[in-house]
Amino acid sequence: MQLSSVSPKLLLQLCISTIHCIFARFFSKVCSWTAGARRGSASAVSAAADSKPNRSEDQDATTPTSVNYHFTRKCNYKCGFCFHTAKTSFVLPLEEAKRGLKLLKDSGMEKINFSGGEPFLHEKGDFLGKMVQFCKQDLQLPSVSIVSNGSMIKEKWFQKYGDYLDILAISCDSFDEDTNQLIGRAQGKKSHLDNLYKIRTWCQQYKVAFKINSVINTFNIEEDMTEQIVELNPVRWKVFQCLLIDGENAGEAALREAERFVISDQQFQEFLDRHSGVSCLVPESNEKMRNSYLILDEYMRFLDCREGRKDPSKSILDVGVKEAICFSGFDEKMFFKRGGKYLWSKADMKLEW
After folding, report:
1. In which domain, by residue range, is 322 found?
2. Given this model, what pLDDT does residue 287 score?
3. Looking at residue 97, what is its pLDDT?
4. Radius of gyration of the chain (CA)
5. Which of 1-5, 8-12, 184-188, 310-314 is least confident?
6. 79 catalytically annotated
7. Does residue 58 belong to any structural domain of this protein?
8. Does 295 fall in a domain?
9. List 21, 79, 135, 172, catalytic entry
């Protein structure tokens, strides 16, 4: 990115956010020292808890109604706040992935969402397409969806796999190209927004419900996106508060330094208030996000984010869904409270194509 091509206002934002990052990292260290002391004093309690018997066999296990499968971590974008970074290049063989998806279906899964990384990057989207087709055609899942940055999607993918896809969500954090460049949601000089509008047209043409995801951060917090969102008319506009995950976008082992992107709860609420007239807006604060998603990593392990990091369970391929999900940290009540279950099959949406 050439800073000379960026507006003075955005350069000022960059300087301010960098200063904010320095202070945030300092306080993060202080908090980690404090947390370490707490963990030490709580070790006896933890040991006592470990000696307690497991949940009774007759108690119902959590149902994986909706699962987010991040089957690849590789991505062609470098979004500064990314909370699932390219720490490995591993992707399960297709037949193993299908075996895991069937285990999830047999355990009650109704919706699968494929994500990354960038899911269209691996085998130019063909691997993803085969999983989408398997989930809809073989497993007969009510809803199959994808989250993508949109940069790798071609029309021929829709021609081959569009019938099997219910929802395509494209991540877009700003309707200003300079802001997208600063965030890292870009590849060279290609226009992220041109791709967004092109994919919107394809979704309409091939009867796939169109959705937009936006991460609200220090660079777009003042933006008013009402006009563009109304024009694009997605079925849902998911608006996330920028979230720190230790080991992913914060901390010494992280591949990103997202502290400079973090906004306060009040700032997030002000953004929501500014867009309160947008009927498709679905807000998700840090509190709602942290433990209300069932996330599978590239090894098909559930990720527990309750402690501000991603602690993996054993793989469902090794121990089954019922045992692995006990270590997911998933809060089923919060999932339903945030509206995690909605009208997610395109057959039921009654959209005007």
Report:
1. 64-349
2. 82
3. 98
4. 20
5. 1-5
6. yes
7. no
8. yes
9. 79
